Amino acid sequence: MKKAIRYLRFSDKHQSNGSIERQELYTDQWVRNNNIQLVDTFIDRGKSARTFDRPDFKKLEEFIRKHYRSVDFLLVDQMDRFSRDAGEAIKMVKKLQVDFNIQIVSVTEGITYDYTTPGSFFRTGLQLLLAEEDNINRSVKVRGGIYTAKAKEGRYVYKNPPFGYFKVGERKERHLEINQSEGDIVRYIYDSFLNGVPIYKIVEKARELGFKRFGNVAIQRVLTSPVYAGLQYVEPYKDYPGGLFKALHAPIIDYVTWQNVQQKFKKPEKAKVVVEDELPLRGVLKCHCGKPVTGAPSRGRHGGYYYYYKCNKTTHLNLSAKKAHEQLLEVFNLMSLPSKAIKSIKEESEASLNLRLKNDKTLIAEKQRELAQEDKKMLSIEEKWITNQINHDTYQRWYDTISNNRMLLMASISRLSQDQDKVYNVLYRNLDYLTDLKYVYTSADTTEKQEIVRLGFDNNLYYENGVYRTPTMIDELAHNHLIMRDRNLLIYEKKRENLTIPPLSGPDGTRTRDLRRDRAAF
What we know:
The termini are far apart. This protein has a five-stranded mixed sheet with strand order 2-1-3-4-5, sandwiched between helices. Strands 10-14-15-16 form a four-stranded mixed sheet. A three-stranded antiparallel sheet has the order 11-12-13. It has helices at 18-33, 55-67, 79-82, 86-100, 118-152, 180-194, 199-209, 218-224, 255-266, 321-335, 339-386, 392-416, 420-430, 437-443, 446-457, 481-486, 515-521; strands at residues 3-10, 37-45, 73-76, 103-106, 111-113, 165-168, 175-178, 231-234, 243-246, 286-287, 294-299, 305-310, 318-320, 462-464, 467-470, 490-492. Strand 6 (165-168) and strand 7 form a beta hairpin. With 522 residues, the chain is of the alpha/beta class. The protein has 17 helices and 16 strands. The chain is 50% helix and 14% strand.
């Protein structure tokens, strides 16, 4: 009695096992009708036939190498179960027969493939080519469907939602909605990256906040994904352009922020910055020569470690970290605002917010008019392309330019349309912290301390001759700068915007009159 093994497969892992049951039914029937003994069965569930890199097909090959002398046939329901790559499949058919004397039988099609018979070999090739053609047609339809769904309808077609979103709805109605807690983490990642926080520190903090993606480049994937700007990348399809397209879902960060991050990624990567809790001013504080200070511990005679800030030019600066920190805490203490000033800021902020809302409405109207003009341009170039007035390269070039302009305009409109009451409420709730900046600084983590220093002094905090110096400082927080000078804590030498104006003189800041200039005026 001749013997056979069989191979069963379906490609869609969500497909019902009914496909396998049907293949078993037909192959069982062939075995009974031809009085063949079935030796073994190999099944690949949810595996594509584009390659032979399938778990059970590999087991089948191993079985054949060991037991080919006791096997006469390899049964398949149809040849597309075996393979949809005609070239690779013909090689495999030839190999099985020439090397192992095993013939492949397509039971549904009623064909026993014999490589040594011309007619049979022709039918083998024809069936495999038809299977591959079917695969190509299916691929074209799938790619066309994906292009339409993403580029024309703005749908997110992938199974798993990206971090920061969850899926709602069914089938074509399914869409992404923002997961607020995860969205806050995404915003933190973008803000921290733009503010110069090292990636490894962003990872640590994001994990504390609940970031659930792992891998060495998980944060980089978030920072480079256009999904968070309300966009998605679409592959070109036939003559239709690829690139970034507006998506249906709401953005977590605005388009301008996303673009700034991409530009920062394009810049040459700097040496890794190590953030150390004992040296929060490293890389933030500058020597009088303008170079950011480094820092390192020094071992004392009793085995303890003492930290110092240093300039690369060793003769410039060697500052005790303890002294620098105590001095800076006194500076922040004097920068704190009295309650009366907080009340005044709140009133001014509310008036400023109302004025800004009014100006924003005007700007929104202008941007909407500009967007309408870009929409007309887009329709115009599409019409010219369809009527063969321009070639595809010209169409693609103009399409990219107009698309970029449209996205910038839409980002501006979205940003200007945001609920400013939320901004004011956040400001209103947090202004009271300005009454105790020393507490704010000491309770912050290392990267937050660095950001506070950068913001407070606009990245211009220096140290020279035992005292901090700065040409830039938030005006509202500089109210005690004379006291800071008297106590030898910080010297605030305000940068003059107009160098043609003589400096102020006198304790009250009045300027001495230039009598020669007065006479010349007469």
